[in-house]
């Protein structure tokens, strides 16, 4: 079959908006996504939530996704759910698998819209069953209608833990306590950016609302937590935490961690797009022009995988990328592109002023970026920060050498979870810039596939 | 550590978690079913032998690898439950063949 004009990887806000816009501009569009339903992580299960009673607890921002998904469903874009992209070629070919067989898709332009990951939170004991991320718990609320019962603690900082806690309380669930790890000194660095943030007073108002909900429910909020430790034998049983140098230990059945989100760059890295180190958000991000075009002519990027901007901004980024692709393919002229884009630029400007403030207020503590020697960094292979430092001492300059020396990043997650920690640990040990230290070299297949899935590659399917 | 929303109207699907029948909301993942069944750990790490369970629930960490309907090394957080699905712990590395 002939190539589509635009293949979109990821069915979150950026991908859905881009696909809908692109079809409206006359492009043929295919969207492939790892999940079974459209919405991405932010709007997971949004189509079903209305009938299940979860929507009320999740709030109006979540419900907004319903219109986005409905417009996408009605657009006529072809949709391949449950497809994991495992290889991207710069000539516009995408290889993906549905778990049984692989397909090859060809496209004139590829839009990568795979969103964000939660920043790794390597603390002592984080590999124990019972410890998971706040994002994971929120996915359980969205897709299975599950809320924490007694003994579940939240530890972390940023908007998501507060939002999630307020959703749980509204739904009738319980939170044992909130261990707030926001670094006290961050306020000083964030303060100069407060005037910008005031333009987004609605976001600030929401944040204060979440805190008020915690207070009303009598959930203890312990501030200035400097360190966290999960303990237990085969399952979490207690959480230890440190405030002003003093340790305390509390019983726990669950511990939900969160320290912000970072761009998911695995696909753009593998495709050979240039990336830069972002010293404020402490992550790598692809080098993009204002429209989301990467340095690879066929590849565009939209949403949080291009730099964290949030769900609302992702939608506009998606539409801008679709407009750029349409103009570059000659489907619309530049005047049409710019006229339609004006609306998106305006909307985007409305969502951005608060970001520099939030980035600095919730900057993660140093011990999370480069943990202590005995803390596991690579969960798959059980490699500690100490072993990474040992590799540096015997000559490893970057993550790829450290990987050969220690196996860090060699397990099934392929360095998705440990990559940033390995980079930061090496950078701190070498007193070098993380951008110079670099990231794991990401190679296909991007997701583990069986030889059977590879052998069943159907090159005529798409 | 988790329970179902009291007013949740989701239909229930019966799956088998380690041989035990468990009713879980339709649309849940196999990893969620393991949590509802209070299974505790869902695999042992082939690298360290430690007990592990899902951490990210969005396909990133691979700590939720389980044996589903006899098929090993499935990311349980990405598999939606079906009536009668067999969900089992994966102990150590998958066996080939």
Question: What would your notes on this structure say?
Answer:
The complex is a heterodimer of chains A (462) and B (97). With 462 residues, chain A is of the alpha/beta class. In chain A, the strands form six sheets. In chain A, strands 1, 2, 3, 4, 5, 6 and 20 form a seven-stranded mixed beta sheet that branches. Chain A has a five-stranded parallel beta sheet with strand order 8-16-10-11-12. A three-stranded antiparallel beta sheet of chain A has the order 13-14-15, with no helix packed on it. The model of chain A has no long low-confidence stretch (mean pLDDT 94). In chain B, 7% of the residues lie in helices and 35% in strands. Chain B contains one helix and eight strands, in the order βββαβββββ. Chain B has one helix at residues 30-36; strands at residues 2-4, 12-17, 20-25, 43-44, 51-52, 65-68, 71-75, 86-91. The longest helix of chain B has 7 residues, at 30-36. Classes of the chains: A alpha/beta (462), B mainly beta (97). At the A-B interface, helix 2, strand 8, helix 5 and strand 9 of A face strand 1, helix 1 and strand 5 of B.
Order of helices and strands of chain B: EEEHEEEEE
Mean pLDDT of chain A: 94
Taking the sheet with the most strands of chain A, its summary is: 7 strands, mixed
- With helices defined by DSSP (H or I, 4 residues minimum), what is the helix count of chain A? 19
Which outline of chain B best applies?
globular
Topology:
The complex is a heterodimer of chains A (462) and B (97).
Chain A lengths: L3 E6 L3 H12 L4 E4 L13 H7 L1 H5 L1 H16 L2 E3 L3 E5 L4 E5 L4 E11 L3 E3 L12 E3 H11 L1 E3 L3 E6 L1 H12 L6 E4 L5 H5 L3 H5 L2 H16 L4 E2 L2 E7 L6 E6 L2 E6 L2 E6 L1 E3 L2 H5 L4 E4 L4 E4 L12 E3 L9 H18 L5 H18 L3 H7 L4 H4 L6 E3 L4 E2 H9 L5 H8 L12 H12 L3 H4 L13 H5 L7
Parallel strand pairs in A: 1-2, 1-6, 2-3, 6-20, 8-16, 10-11, 10-16, 11-12
Antiparallel strand pairs in A: 4-5, 5-6, 7-17, 13-14, 14-15, 18-19, 21-22
Helix pairs in contact in A: 1-4, 1-11, 5-6, 6-9, 11-12, 15-16, 15-17
Chain B lengths: L1 E3 L7 E6 L2 E6 L4 H7 L6 E2 L6 E2 L12 E4 L2 E5 L10 E6 L6
Parallel strand pairs in B: 2-8, 4-8
Antiparallel strand pairs in B: 2-3, 4-5, 6-7, 6-8
């Amino acid at each position: 079959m002939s190539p589509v004009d635009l293949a979109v990887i990821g069915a979150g806000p950026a991908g859905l908006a881009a696909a809908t816009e692109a079809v409206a501009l006359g492009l043929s569009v295919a969207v492939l996504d790892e999940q079974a339903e459209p919405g991405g992580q932010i709007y997971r299960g949004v189509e079903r939530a209305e009938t299940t009673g979860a929507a009320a607890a999740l709030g109006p921002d979540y419900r907004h996704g319903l219109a986005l998904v409905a417009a996408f469903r009605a657009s006529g874009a072809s949709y391949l759910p449950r497809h994991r992209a495992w290889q991207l070629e710069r000539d516009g070919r995408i290889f993906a698998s549905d778990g049984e067989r692989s397909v090859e898709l060809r496209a004139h332009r590829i839009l990568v819209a795979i969103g964000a990951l939660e920043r790794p939170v390597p603390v002592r004991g984080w590999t124990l069953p019972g410890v998971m991320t706040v994002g994971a718990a929120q996915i359980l609320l969205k897709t299975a209608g599950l809320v924490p019962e007694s003994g579940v603690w939240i530890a972390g900082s940023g908007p998501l833990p507060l939002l999630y806690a307020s959703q749980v309380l509204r739904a009738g669930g319980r939170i044992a306590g909130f261990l707030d790890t926001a670094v006290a000194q961050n306020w000083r660095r964030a303060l100069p950016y407060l005037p910008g943030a005031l333009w987004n007073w609605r976001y600030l108002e929401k944040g204060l609302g979440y805190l008020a909900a915690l207070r009303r429910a009598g959930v203890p909020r312990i501030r200035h937590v400097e360190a966290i430790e999960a303990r237990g034998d085969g399952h979490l049983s207690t959480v230890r935490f440190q405030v002003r140098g003093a340790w305390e230990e509390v019983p726990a059945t669950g511990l939900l961690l969160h320290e912000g989100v970072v761009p998911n760059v695995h696909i753009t890295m593998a495709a050979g797009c240039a990336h830069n180190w972002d010293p404020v958000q402490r992550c790598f991000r692809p080098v993009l022009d204002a429209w989301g075009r990467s340095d690879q002519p066929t590849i565009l990027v939209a949403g949080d995988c291009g730099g964290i901007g949030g769900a609302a901004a992702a939608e506009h980024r998606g539409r801008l990328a679709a407009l750029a692709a349409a103009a570059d393919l000659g489907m619309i002229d530049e005047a049409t592109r710019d006229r339609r884009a004006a609306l998106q630029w305006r909307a985007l400007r409305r969502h951005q002023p608060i970001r520099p403030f939030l980035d600095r207020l919730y900057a993660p503590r140093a011990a999370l970026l480069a943990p202590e020697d005995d803390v596991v960094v690579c969960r798959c292979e059980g490699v500690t920060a100490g072993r990474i430092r040992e590799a540096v001492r015997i000559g490893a300059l970057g993550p790829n050498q450290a990987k050969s020396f220690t196996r860090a990043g060699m397990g099934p997650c392929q360095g998705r979870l440990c990559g940033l920690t390995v980079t930061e640990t090496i950078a701190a040990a070498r007193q070098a810039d993380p951008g110079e230290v670099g990231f794991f070299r990401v190679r296909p297949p991007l997701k583990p596939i069986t030889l059977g899935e590879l052998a069943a590659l159907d090159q005529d399917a798409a | 550590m988790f329970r179902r929303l009291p007013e949740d109207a989701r239909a229930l699907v019966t799956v088998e978690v380690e041989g035990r029948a468990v009713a879980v909301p339709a649309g849940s993942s196999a990893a969620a079913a393991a949590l509802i069944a209070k299974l505790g750990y869902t695999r042992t790490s082939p690298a360290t032998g430690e007990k592990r369970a899902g951490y990210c629930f969005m396909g990133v960490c691979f700590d939720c690898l389980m044996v589903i309907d006899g098929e090993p090394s499935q990311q349980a957080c990405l598999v939606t439950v079906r009536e009668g699905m067999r969900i089992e712990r994966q102990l150590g590395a998958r066996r080939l063949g």
